[in-house]
Amino acid sequence: MTESTQDIDKLSAEIVHRSREARFAGISPEVWTQRIESLISAHEQARNVAVTGLKPVDEAAGGSNGTLVFEGKWTSSTGEQETADLVLRFLPTRGLFHAYDVRAQFLIQKALGETPVPAAPQRWLDEQGEHLGVPGYVMDRVAGRSTPMTWMTSGLYVDATPTARRHMQRA
Predict the structure, then answer these.
(1) What averages of pLDDT result for each successive group of 10 residues across the chain (171 residues)?
(2) pTM over 0.90
């Protein structure tokens, strides 16, 4: 790795860190937990809702949104115990990408789920921020790797062979 690449990676990491600080400023994990539990309760008519393991995603993804991962557990309205690894994506109040259509993003990803295009199943939309305090949505967490915020200068995409890059672009 060259010195200029290291400088770019360092600068990119700092940008990601500051951007995430701005998005989460003043909202504790405990408050997010309560908000997410409220959202699940409202949409599932669920009881005994519990959110555990709440944390921001690592540096590899979620640069334009507030993005938290967690495990959700609840008792459904039919009495069944449900457990799922989930992702909350929410509209940041500041930052470069602080204004976009959360509803459209949710609906597009939901529609993609009915096609051969790989997309995480979408769960619940809080379009007005009634439960989350800001517009956002919850989707299933899908195992895999994602490119870093600096995807054009380092990481999975840059390290891949040209054939592997073409495969990523088509996937």
Answers:
(1) 65 64 70 94 86 79 74 91 93 63 91 90 93 93 70 64 77 62
(2) no
Could you tell me the CA-to-CA distances from 43 to 5, 40, 66, 74, 81 in Å, in that order?
Answer: 46, 5, 21, 12, 15
Which amino acid makes up residue 131?
H
Question: HEC profile for the chain?
Answer: CCHHHHHHHHHHHHHHHHHHHHHHCCCCHHHHHHHHHHHHHHHHCCEEEEEEEEEECCCCCCCCCEEEEEEEEEECCCCCEEEEEEEEEECCCCCCCCCCCHHHHHHHHHHHCCCCCCCCCEEEEECCCCCCCCCEEEEECCCCCCCCCCCCCCCHHHHCCHHHHHHHHHC
Which residues, including other chains, have CB under 8 Å from residue 92's CB and lie 6 or more apart?
A: 22, 23, 65, 66, 98, 134
- Which residues, at least 6 apart from 20, have a Cβ–Cβ distance to it below 8 Å? 56
Residue 113 falls in which region: left (phi positive, over 0), alpha (psi -120 to 50) or beta:
alpha
- Type of residue at 94: R
**Which amino acid, one-letter code, is at 164?**
A
